[in-house]
Amino acid sequence: MSSLTYLKKYELPPLPYNVDALEPYISKDIIDVHYNGHHKGYVNGANSFVDRVNKVLKGEISAGQYDIQGLLRGLVFNINGHKLHSLYWQNMAPAGKGGGKPGGAIGDLIEKQYGSFEKFKALFTEAANSLPGTGWTVLYYEVENDNLQIMTFENHFQNHIAELPILLILDEFEHAYYLQYKNKRADYVNNWWNLVNWDFADKKLQQVMKK
User: Fold this and answer.
1) What's the pLDDT at 63?
2) CATH topology assigned to domain 28-90
3) CATH class entry, domain 104-210
4) What CA–CA distances, in Å, run from 97 to 22, 62, 93, 126?
């Protein structure tokens, strides 16, 4: 008997805090719409494309009845939307428990490679404020050279160096800030620093370093 189970579906993970936990920096209304609307939408979208791929695998849809590149692009867009948002929630801590200057391995590496946390923060902020349109600003860790790499990418299609895990991520889609900050994205970016969960980023870095 075949053990084939086909592609499995995705689930919306619970928020790691209450919807009002990030106030006053990010309002509960934004978190509600962002999580229950947009993130949930990406999970539903991913599962819709998983269903379509499974129908292809089962022979319920034959060649010529679907656009394979369109199918894969839709799958990637929605799965990345889900996974990036999951990281984004974890990369923030409730107001009063996050932000500040990082310690641990990530704090040491930032000081070593960027000269100071202030220089790192300024460069990350500059990258975030220069992002055209909507997308993400991220901090990757490159195992080969022990480098912390700052990078931006638009939408959910990543400008990504292979194998690099994300340690820190900032969502810059308008739905992440517009209800509260309107068109002042720079204010949102500046206030986001008060919420950064450095403990989570440091644990991720140490896990990768051990491997």
Assistant:
1) 81
2) Helix Hairpins (1.10.287)
3) alpha beta
4) 10, 53, 6, 25
